[in-house]
Design brief:
Largest sheet: none
Number of strands: 0
Distance between the termini: 41 Å
Radius of gyration: 38 Å
Number of helices: 10
Shape: rod-shaped
Helix content: over 70%
Length: 326
């Protein structure tokens, strides 16, 4: 029995040794399953993550400031469009001036942030996974990609500026034209024909100025309504001036020339737009010709920046969550 017991104990000892070797080998294999730079090797990437995370946090803060500037630019863009639709040149010019400053600031901030992200260590190298975790690499890539949202904002703003400035000058010219024609009519009623004709000549110059602005917009907007507006107002100016010239020559005597001038003035007046709705349509067309597109581009850029900020607010944990148990 002693010999049998010795054999049993010996077998148990060997079994224990075999189990220990097997468990040890399994542990080695499990450890090898976690390549450097993954969540399973926080001991390898912890130092690199600790070095890079503050840099990414700083970039995140700068990205938030950049998003704020783009949002402010969007406010100015909408303000310029609203000023155009309400025929408020002063408000439009103020919005454009502030927008110019914001665009320059956005470009400067974007370039600086690109440089800062490019200088972050480890993440841009082929061996990044040996120094920092996948979460850090992904976060850095997301921040870099977010900056692409500002590409083309300067071009979009330039389109908005061109449309706004041209439309503002045009609306000012047309408003001044109408004022001069009204003043000329008042002079005509007082038989001050020379003064009336002089005012109509000035009104014609405003039509010419509006045509110059129109030529700058023809490549981007439909100017057919604008052309009709300008042509009909110009025709009426000529007809009214001819009437005053005819009356000034013969006085109160009704001559065939005066009768023809009266008919021509009446016909030209009948073709005038009844109110300012045509001008509103013109302003809307100009807005669609670049300003609305610029506003949309700015809002899309702001949305992309905001999404990137929300997605990268916190760096995911490098280690696995505890599962509980003793």
């Amino acid at each position: 029995m002693t010999e049998a017991l010795r054999r049993v104990l010996g077998g148990l000892i060997w079994l224990a040794i075999i189990l220990a070797i097997a468990l040890g080998a399994a542990g080695i294999v499990t450890g090898m399953d976690h390549a450097p730079g993954t969540a399973g090797r926080v001991d390898v990437t912890a130092a690199g993550d600790a070095e890079v995370t503050p840099l990414l946090d700083s970039a995140q803060t700068d990205l938030s400031a950049l998003a704020d500037q783009v949002e402010a630019l969007g406010i100015r863009a909408r303000g310029a469009l609203a000023a155009l639709n309400s025929l408020d040149p002063a408000a439009g010019e103020a919005a454009i001036a502030e927008g110019d400053r914001l665009v320059a600031d956005v470009i400067t901030r974007t370039a600086a942030l690109r440089g800062a992200l490019a200088a972050v260590p480890y993440v841009g190298t082929p061996t990044a996974g040996l120094r920092v975790s996948d979460a850090i690499v992904s976060r850095h890539a997301a921040l870099v990609a977010a900056l692409d949202a500002t590409d083309g904002l300067d071009t979009a703003w330039a389109r908005l500026t061109i449309g706004s400035v041209a439309a503002t000058k045009m609306s000012s010219a047309l408003a001044e034209h109408d004022r001069l024609v009204v003043a000329a009519v008042q002079k005509g009623r007082l038989a001050k024909y020379a003064e009336a004709i002089k005012l109509l000549t000035q009104a014609e110059a405003q039509i010419a100025a509006a045509r110059t602005q129109r030529d700058g917009l023809v490549q981007t907007v439909d100017v057919s309504v604008l052309d009709q507006w300008l042509d009909r107002n110009a025709a009426y100016d000529v007809a009214l001036a001819n009437l005053y010239k005819a009356i000034a020559k013969v006085g109160k005597k009704v001559s065939p020339a005066i009768q023809a001038a009266v008919k021509a003035e009446a016909a030209a007046r009948a073709r005038l737009p009844p109110d300012a709705r045509g001008l509103v349509i013109i302003m809307a067309d100009i807005g669609r010709g670049g300003m609305n597109g610029a506003v949309i581009a700015i809002e899309e850029a702001r949305g992309k920046l905001t999404d990137a900020i929300d997605a990268g607010t916190a760096t995911p944990s490098n280690g696995p969550e505890p599962t509980g148990g003793s």
